[in-house]
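Chapter review: from sequence to fold.
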Amino acid sequence: MNLYRTAAVVTIFSALEHGLGFLYRIILSRTLGPEGLGIYQISLTVFAVFLTACSSGLPITLSRMISKHRAHKYKRGEHAATTAAVLLTLLFSLPVTLLLFLIRPQFTSVFSDPRCADLFYILIFSLSFTSVYAVIRGSFWGNKRFFAYSLIELIEEIVMILVGVLLLIVFRTGAADVNKAAIAVVVSYLCSFAIASVYYFIRGGRITSPRGEMLPLLRASLPVTAMRTTSSLMSSFISVLFPMRLMAAGASSAHAMAQYGVVYGMVMPVLMIPSSLIGSIALVLVPELSECFYKGEKEEVSRLVEKALNATLLIAGMLVPFFIACGEGVGVLLYSNAESGRMIVKSALILIPMSVTMISTSLLNSLGCEKQTLLFFVLGSGVMLLCVWFLPKYLGSGALLVGMAGDYLLCAVCSLYLLQKKTGRLRSGSYTAKLALVLLPVGIAGGALKGLLMRYLSYLPALTLTVIALLVLEVAVLSLFRLFDFRSFVLKFLPKRPFRSRGAKRLHSS
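The token string follows.
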């Protein structure tokens, strides 16, 4: 299977996973409400800090080390590296879990709402299981077992949704709804851990001596872990700081929590739509890029980086007009919340730097630039903190959107500069400019069309026709300006058949 068809398969799984997760988020928003969704989001954010600290840097580093061993045809090194990664994540996660339960009364005071603490301590039961699963998933990544990687992720999402729906809607009990949602998360983590562990051994995986692998793995993974842990800490800190600053500006506690729930529980899931496609590109490309890097194939590295950036820019660029024209309708349709829709429209352009940051960080980490990506993240986080501290008084919840825009923009610029230095050439700037010149007018035209249709049609038909018209218009202008060849793209996914003459066909059939 070539790179395009592999990416297509991964994208289908990822799109299904994110689509189901998006639908589940709608269910949660309607059953928990904005305040309950805010509590759920804050607890998950704090749990993510510990999960990130225990395992986040190991999967991508393990993938890169396995790619290195594959390049040198060293099979035992692959097993030793995986064993070392499992041991490292257990050495962190088990003591952390025990310590958190020992200091529960003191740690509970971290949360402004005691309901958040109850939910967090349900989630923490799964810390070691899901940390080990993350490492095993990293070994699938390095060995290019993308189907297993994607399928298990999809199963995890399905299990969470099924258990969540059963607990929240079908089997009503006296337990708090937010706690039921947390139980669904834990059950899904246990399920994915069990399936991945069984599959690892079935496919020849072994537990071997980690000698010679633990220290290199630890040193290489620490910058990535530090960056992602800091990111999780930042999200947790903002989940506490933003409501506090909003209340200092005169908002009530319930209103502040609801505003945080709207941004992170409603707007962010919509903004993260491109992440499923971008994640698929990174998933398929990173092992390939690492192997080429360790083999010294600089031209191939440059080609793959440019291809990944242009694909990412195209994905994000095509979504921007939809968000500009239909964002407000999406907020009303999905969440019955007009404010979330208005925020989606205002944050449409954030998609570009956000998407570039996502893909460029993965590419740089695969090229051994973990320390630099950590620095870029710290700089971007500084911008975010300044916005959250000073702007809620003037912009309310818009302070979070401005902070995100500044954060992603700074990270994207720095990452692109470093990629240009690493590859020697980067021609994605002109491609970005052409996309902007072509697609921004499309978004404005889509908004005008929606306003016109709303005069004569009801809400849903007008929104549907606008989406169809935008899609047709985008395909037309992208093809006209030769920014994307849809026909060639489709043909790349079709299997190539050997040519046979008619005589050869008759001979073969006889």
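Two observations follow directly from the output. Residues 3-55 form the longest helix (53 residues). Residues 1-222 form one domain.
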